[in-house]
Design a protein that fits this description.
The complex is a heterodimer. Chain A is built from four helices and three strands; from the N terminus they run αβααββα. Chain A is 63% helix and 14% strand. Chain A has a three-stranded antiparallel β-sheet with strand order 1-3-2. By secondary structure, chain A is α+β, with helices and mostly antiparallel strands. By secondary structure, chain B is mostly helical. Chain B has two domains: 4-73, no CATH class; 81-222, no CATH class. Chain B contains eight helices and no strands. Chain B has helices spanning 4-15, 24-44, 49-58, 63-73, 79-109, 125-148, 153-181, 186-222. In chain B, helix 1 (4-15) packs across helix 2 (24-44). The model of chain B has no long low-confidence stretch (mean pLDDT 81). Classes of the chains: A alpha+beta, B mainly alpha. The A-B interface holds A 30-32, 36, 49-51, 54-59, 62, 77-80 and B 26-27, 29-31, 33-38, 41, 59-62, 65-66, 69-70, 72-75.
Chain lengths: 115, 224
């Protein structure tokens, strides 16, 4: 993998992690709800495909940042709801700071916010 | 309403029938639930049933890739381990088996009493011919091992071609040595070098690919 590809992959991975953890900080959600909320809130600018979403959810769960639990949804069907663990909450704060610094740095260099 | 669990299991089974494990059941159920929600959303938007099913299933894209990524994400396989299972192991098994087979053929067939044509132009023609004819078996075996480990198609092809890639590397080194050490005789060496590359790398590579092709064909025929 080339350096630029690796950087892009890391950015994509890091941003996905941030988005999912931030959503789960508000409330427990299941996979489909997570992808729908992301699409709605970003007005379609961000769309997580199923093939990216679930590997990320399982990775976060394996690292102990989120926890999945089957429970009935509003429709009465069982869905696997993910919630943030205390470790996930601790992980999210510095992650947000890092991304803020990253965007500030980008803004200084490329004037992203004025584009 | 379609049976989403069955549809997901069927597709994962089609990718690798022998590798759908019990541990996958939870993932299958979760994926089925996701597709069910997506299907209902599409139906709510006025899409007809068959189109909604197709689009929901199409949202997964590469089933083989998804299964592998989930496995890795769940920590059942490390990336390195996955690469070893899908590429290095099938490739090395193919290479070793192919070379051992060549050695056996040479020992069994190369006798001083062998008629002239079988030792044509100083090449051990008889063992080479048998070896070349049997290469598709090794290609099929490597493809099978790689596929069983849920390799992506390009990894599967690389594992299949592994013996001829190694041989090509050997010939590249050989060519470099000839150019460096016998520069003045290079013009005389080229036909031999080209013939060697063709006989030991290109043709075996094509035979290995033929083996993979035949293996895939039998897999498709066996599928209901």
């Amino acid at each position: 993998m080339s350096v630029s590809k690796r950087i892009r992959a890391n950015i994509a991975r890091g941003s996905t992690e941030l988005v999912i953890l931030s959503l789960l900080l508000e409330q427990a959600l299941y996979g489909f709800e997570i992808s729908r909320r992301i699409e709605e809130r970003t007005e379609g600018a961000l769309r997580f495909e199923l093939a990216s979403l679930y590997p990320m959810l399982y990775d976060l769960e394996r690292r102990g940042l989120i926890k999945g639990r089957w429970q009935p949804s509003s429709t009465g069907r069982d869905r696997r709801y993910y919630s943030l663990t205390p470790k996930g909450k601790t992980h999210l704060a510095p992650l947000r700071r890092e991304w803020r610094s990253f965007f500030q740095a980008l803004d200084c260099l490329a004037g992203v916010s004025n584009a | 309403m379609p049976d989403w669990n069955a549809l997901v299991r069927e597709r994962l089974g089609a990718v690798a029938p022998s590798s759908v494990k019990k541990e996958d059941e939870e993932f299958i159920a979760e994926l089925a639930a996701h597709l069910e929600d997506l299907y209902e959303q599409l139906r709510g938007q006025g899409m007809c049933e068959s189109d909604a099913i197709d689009q929901a299933l199409g949202d997964v894209g590469n089933w083989r890739g998804l299964a592998g990524r989930i496995r890795r994400a769940k920590g059942e396989e490390e990336t390195m381990n996955s690469r070893t299972k899908t590429l290095w192991l099938p490739g090395l098994i193919g290479l070793t088996a192919s070379m051992v087979w060549l050695m056996i053929l040479q020992r069994a067939t190369l006798k001083p009493s062998l008629p002239g044509p079988w030792l044509h132009a100083g090449v051990a023609f008889l063992p080479y011919l048998i070896w070349q004819i049997t290469q598709p078996l090794f290609g099929a075996a490597s493809a099978y091992l790689s596929r069983r480990a849920r390799a992506e198609p390009r990894t599967e092809i690389a594992a299949t071609l592994f013996p001829s890639i190694v041989m090509l590397g050997v010939w590249v080194v050989l060519i470099a040595c000839i150019v460096v050490t016998r520069y003045s005789h290079v013009a005389h060496q080229w036909p031999l070098v080209i013939a060697g590359t063709l006989n030991w790398s290109i043709l075996p590579g094509l035979s290995l690919l033929l083996g993979r092709f035949l293996y895939l064909k039998t897999q498709n025929l066996a599928r209901p």
